[in-house]
Fold these 2 entries.
Entry 1:
Amino acid sequence: MTTAKDLLRHEMMPHILCPGCGHGIVMNAMLRVLARRHQNLDKVALVAGIGCSSRIVGYVDANTLHTTHGRALTFATGLKLARPELEVIVVTGDGDGLGIGGNHLIHAARRNVDLTCILFNNETYGMTGGQLAPTTVKQAFTTTSPGGNTEPNFDAAVLAKAAGASFVARGQAYRPDVLEEVMERALDHRGFSFVEVMTDCTEYFGRKNALGLGSDLLFTQSRSDQEVSRDLADWPSLRTPQGWQVRETQPLGVLHEDRRPTFEESRGLPGYSEREV
Amino acid sequence: MWRKEIRLAGSGGQGLGLAAMVLADAALRAGLHATIMQSYGPEARGGASRADVTLSDQPIANPWFPAPRILLALSQKAWDRFSPKLGADALAIVDLDRVQGAQGANVWALPFERTARAELREKVAANMLALGALGVVLEHIPQEILAETAQSRAPKGFGQVNRTAVARGWQLMGDALGGIAHVESVGP
Amino acid sequence: MSKRELISGNEACALGALASGLRFFGGYPISPSSEISEILSSRLPRAGGVFVQMEDEMASLGSVIGASLGGLRAMTATSGPGFTLMQEHLGYASLAEIPCLVVDVMRVGPSTGVPTAPSQGDVMQARWGSHGDRGTVALSPASVEEVYNLTVHAFNIADRLRTPVVLMFDEVIGHMREGVELSPPAPEDLWGRPRPAGAPGPDFRAYAPNEQGVAQLPAFGDGYRFHVTGLFHDERGYPTTNPDLVRQALERLERKLDPIPAWLPPEKYHMTDADFVYVAYGAVSRVAREAVDRLREKGVAAGLYRPRVLWPVDEAALRKDLAKARTVVVAEMNRGQWVQVVSQALPPAIRVVSYGKTGGEPVTTDEMYGLAADLNLRSVKSS
């Protein structure tokens, strides 16, 4: 029986993720799902952009493609249409997928190519040093919002659904069990599947906002089983050790699913059935 | 070596792109060399559109010319826009009913659209009538080849109309020239 | 009866790509290249390929690289502003060694410029447009027929050397129709990609170069699991910051392109005894050839040197080919780009003159001929 560990490139270790980063949990959940689905990852391609989350594809013993900042979905589109038998998973971050790559995300959702996109949302640009992201909540401090963020943030799941994603879900590092279930369903779905995963950046976002260590941050997500808590609505109280209590809540789990023709089906191209073979 | 620079101009929808294709293709079939440069962008869709055809007995190095030696203008706009650039020795053929104020020793105004409507029941065949007229002054392409090309390149159902239109246009120009060119240029 | 057909450069490009076995096109509309997309949108699916209109030019080339990694011959087509947007992915394809073809139908820039007027202003962008040093490949056809043939060659070079190739021509060549008789390549004229060395497994090295210095990547999904990245990488494809490996890779990526100029030598017209030489490519070379004929009639030993490969440059060959010239006029539809290559290659004894025409009007034969007079060539002036 294949385990998550079997799917790692051990020669790539140590990894670059910081102590306390939530990404490892999310990656582990993804590997566990893949281990259940495949003996090896010959027919799986992981495509990533640039950023902390995007680096993890290199650690997986699959067909792995580490592309340019924001453009992973475009490479994945070409690859998937060239090799429909592959299970193509796009790993991206919030800066990568919603900032520089936002246009590609909405068009990938609209086009409905049979891809699965997992967006690691840590509300900041981690790799470059904790700058303001399109997902950074109002009032939060980052290295480029020294007085607190004044811009509204994107709701990635709502955006993806509005753009036409035929499967939309949200998970969190705090609940890897829910995450696994969500990822499994996303991979099963025919068409463009979008999974937003809340995973915190300890080193920058946590530190800048005095939110504590990795485990403290993880617990800020623990609002309820049904919801992911996220929004720093009332800034001053966040500076207290109980700051996470003021995070607003957002729904968790599968938020939207419909079955509409994929790009491949509409064009009469080989598609979903190929990757079942 | 000879070189003829011809501008086919009118408004978008008058079929000047097709006329240019027929003319250049007929030239190829006649063993000549031909190039086309067509206007792109908004002007090709309703403004003063144009297609520039260059014909020669030798390979054509440059398909581009700043001002034509022969102008076919099927709309007022096209005439107003391109006629000021015509040189003293240039020749122009215009649609009699569409273009006002086109005068000069080398300007021929002929009723292309009127004839197309009255005799062929197809207003859109005016382009092929004009092409027939042009064929007379070009001298190097036999009428039969031009008519044959017009027929083979016609949209579905327009083959015979276009063939007839070329012949009729040839005749109109021949008559205008006093029948001389008409007689000389018509080959078997 | 001649079988010549009236075909435009853009059309010939699409037909050449199909004849080369194109199987994926991702593109974004832009004048004056859009006809290539339009034709392939109907013809490519019928040939068993995939056509996708992407959301922008970065997406276009991204999708092309993805499809190429899946093992397909893949291309995109664009013009100036789109070519600028593609620069990052051109750099990516160079470093990650993914074969692909980018067609750039050049229009007047910078910025939106004159969208439908011809130019040759992207020559230096093709060389240095992407950040970082890298070897680049750019081919420049001068006729509709040559667009067809060089499209085939471009795919061959891209595959054999695993590199992006830029096929660049001005709007005149792209939009002009002329009578041509195209001859499709024979199967043996189509080159393939280097085959992977070694079997799948932990010891597999996707980026181990062959004797020509070319990485030997399999396609994704062929049973090899390997890593592709835009980071400098070792032979396994794993990221490295080792300065020696970085330097070696950079040098290898440039050196592997060395054979290209010999594969597609320049056209030399009346060059054996020419002491007055036009250097021109694309549409400009066509009028330069006519000017040479006229000058020859006047007794001037004029010649035309027409590079078909703009990048990489074989400087030694260029120097040798132009050694007998006394005056070299480099005529381009820009403010003097490839002339820099020529001036750098030639000794100071040879007079190098830049004739750069901008504004969106092509160079005419009269203009080219007149240049010779302006340059005080005795026999011309006296005529």
Entry 2:
Amino acid sequence: MTVAFIGNPNVGKTTLFNKFAGRRQKTSNFPGTTQEAHVASLDAGGRSLSIVDLPGIYSLGLDQSESSICRGVLEGSIAPAGTRASPPGGVLLVLDGTNLLRNLQLAGEVLARKIPTAVVVTMADDASRRGIHIDREKLASHLGCPVVLVSSKTGRGIDEARGLLSTGVITESSIPTEQSELERWADAVYADVCADDAPVGDRDRLTDRLDRAFTHPVLGVVTFAAIMTGLFWVIFTLASVPMDGIDWFFATLGAVVADVLPEGPVRELLTDGVIAGVGGTVIFLPQIILLFFLIALLEQSGYLARAAFVIDRILRPFGLPGHAFVPFLSAHACAIPAIMSARAVPDRRDRLATILVVPFMSCSARIPVYVLLTQILFPGSSGKQALAFTGCYVLGILAGLVSAILARGTMLRGRSRPMALELPRYQLPGLFYATKQAFYRGWLFVRKAGTVILAISVVLWWLNAYPGSEPSPVAESLRSEAAQIARAEPDRADELLLRANAEDTKFASRNTFLGRIGSAIQPVFAPIGADRQLTVGILASFAAREVFVSTMAVQIAGSEDTEDETVFEAVSTAERDDGSPVFTEATNWSMLVFFVLAIQCLPTLVVTAKEAGGWKWAGLQFAWMTGVAYVSSLVVYTVVTRVL
Amino acid sequence: MPLTQLSRGQSARLESCTLPEFESAELRAMGLKPECEFRVCKMGEPCIVSIGPGASGCRIALSKKLADHVHVRPC
């Protein structure tokens, strides 16, 4: 038998579900939607049950995706992916004891559907403390089904509630279905079962003060900026430790595999394709897990709903709602979870605009590219490097906001929906929920991005490795020179051998499939200053941006290690096929602007297609961002070339 | 009178909403239904009201654009 959990948002429904389901729960989606469904199997009262946690709703009758899913589940027309759609055998109605009057309206709507129902009133202790006294027997009599009062904090009533899962009954009470009559019914039930005449207390006055501060036009923005700075500081400081660990693990794994397997295509596929590809993706996992952990803490504390109004004031002139700030924030770690978090934006046009523009924010995959290019631009001047770095972030944000104005003024034209939000109570956040959210988001990232990146890495490796070529004539002559002076000048001989290897790499890279494609496509990128090698770097980074750095290093120096000073020196002083430098000042600025603005991340496009509801949106995003990046780079390249 | 003309701390009852149907329905489902009593916690952007009798109820924050279309009667 399936039991559906239904209730208003923020009533403790999911906390209750977690208490019953423990670790046995699975998360899937409702088909055709981005709404998550939590499902678990358990035994209750000797019966095997499947419990489903439905999204929080205010009413079954609203024109919102959450309400439509709940209606579909109760009617048996929709079910979580992987389960059969049929009307549930029972409903567990979860009501907030501190806000019973409004909750009774949804209770009436659900009970009128004549499905076996049991009722759990949460936050019972909190209600008592606030002077709200609920008569359980009277409530059960009005609703015509069993009622339990629970407190998740103390555990009171939880076991009894678990026993109710399989013992819901179809109400025999007469419940009106017309809206005004239903509201009058709820008022009458409330008046009979609740004694609630406590005046406004100190706690409400404190909440008033906090609300005024957190949504104040100046203080609210300052608080928000301080919290976000702290959040980023924690992410970048704490994540660096596990990121170094992951980097070390994959480097060691690659070395071990290289030692164990004989030289050949299988070894190269595993080390340069599979391990490098997976490692390059998984390295961003700590940042993503930390980001979602901290956002979950902020969400539970009650602050996030207040912050949404602060940001609404800033984003509204650009046609975006305050809800978009979590996606905008998340996108600075990675666009994939950011696009997924745009589900919280209620209006479809607002949501689409958010999804389309968040990849303009500078994600952590762009950082290695920014580091390389700013170091070449301003060698030895960390102040100027930092300034250019900050400029990249600002340029990304501005491009996103301007694109949002254009999108909302053209294809997503329409009235922006003003915000109305329930402000949840301030409370201490729960670590279990935040940890669960963080790891679930991390897993989604690995599953969605990892699989695509892995496949692309293997393809890129193949294109970059084949067809193999003979050693270059220049390298051959360097080697024979090294052999002649090996005894007399061993240091000079070693240096010649290193140069020979680099020559071989450059020679081979020209003849691989990727090198040939680069030569063929180079004329397209020539106007923005790219030669054959930079074109290969740009093409390779369409799979994932960070690949640019390693691709340039491999092509030019024959090593991926750009932290090695000789490799960095080789890259920064690399020459084009005609002998002129690869990285001129104009090329550098042009490439920097291109990498800030271009999308260059296939997993992001895959997620956009899924979340926005079609590949046309992903295609539009790709075309717009690439077009903006190309034109901007062209302008920068032309201006810098003429000025300098 | 519009909700935006009340002052902080004042209590009022809701008379009507002159908003598109889906927005009125949402506010009504959130607890802002005709004749409901509420207390103004903050004016401006957003306007925050605490709905419900006594110590129970909930807090709803409304952007000023919405609050302009919510008509109330002070009590």
